[in-house]
Specification:
Helix content: 10-25%
Largest sheet: 5 strands, antiparallel
Strand order of the largest sheet: 1-2-12-8-9
Distance between the termini: 26 Å
Shape: globular
Length: about 250
């Protein structure tokens, strides 16, 4: 396959996710990565977690002097189930509910706690968040990563000159693969600074063939979001995409 070194092919086929595609064409670096929800975990991470901090990197147990209550809410067989504790450590009942939660439903956590501070008037505070469990199988392009690489190269990348990007310049197109595997919600996240080049990228994404949708172990499908990025991945805008490259 022209303009694609063999060493890149080895990386591509070995590490299909989180970097779905990582390549260069005539010096132009481009990737396709999964965009993750603000808070999400894999099924393996869900099972391994023993504290609520394991679900939210923004929650710091050092904030807490003492817990009033920790309520974990899940949907099990279509019904709301709640398990309450007075600790940041998950109880057996909370672990069971997390394991039994219906695929594709959000899990909510409400923490009521006494803050660790020096204030004379120290009132109970609340910290709440929701998170999702990633599908067991990620959405995938028909024919696999190699076919996706070839498609993008032929339909878009080879039409964009490498000198379109200088220094830390980067462009990005966001798109989603819905429950049926169709491409939806295609939009420019970061422009190439050329209306013509932007249109080439948009049309290439919109005209992609149907993907195999993301799927849970029970066969339920889910929508997933992705980003095609071109140029320098050290650009500060990359962090706003919430992609995971390592």
């Amino acid at each position: 396959m022209k303009n694609f070194p063999q060493k890149w092919m080895s990386v591509l086929l070995t590490f299909a996710f989180p970097v779905l595609l990582l390549a260069q064409n005539n010096g132009l670096h481009y990737e396709v990565n999964r965009i993750y929800p603000y808070l999400s975990v894999s099924k393996e991470q869900l099972k391994a977690a023993n504290t609520i901090a394991g679900f939210n990197r923004h929650f710091n147990p050092s904030w807490v002097r003492s817990y009033e209550s920790v309520t974990v809410s899940t949907i099990i067989q279509g019904k709301l189930q709640q398990a309450v504790s007075n600790s940041g450590v998950l109880t057996p009942a909370q672990k069971v509910n997390l394991d039994r939660a219906d695929a594709g439903t959000e899990i909510s956590v409400l923490v009521r706690y006494l803050p660790e501070n020096t204030l004379q008037q120290n009132d109970i505070q609340e910290f709440d968040f929701t998170f999702s469990v990633n599908p067991d199988y990620e959405a995938s392009f028909a024919g696999g990563p190699e076919a996706l690489m070839q498609y993008l190269q032929e339909k878009a990348i080879q039409s964009i000159p490498a000198n379109q990007f200088q220094g830390f310049d980067m462009a990005a197109v966001k798109f989603s693969v819905n429950q049926s595997g169709n491409i939806v919600d295609v939009s420019i996240f970061q422009s190439t600074r050329s209306a013509e080049m932007d249109q080439i990228l948009l049309e290439a994404i919109r005209q992609m063939t149907t993907w195999k949708p993301a799927t849970y172990a029970n066969g339920m499908t889910a929508q997933q979001e992705f980003a095609l990025t071109l140029g320098n991945m050290e650009n500060c805008m990359v962090s706003l995409l919430n992609i995971r490259r390592d």
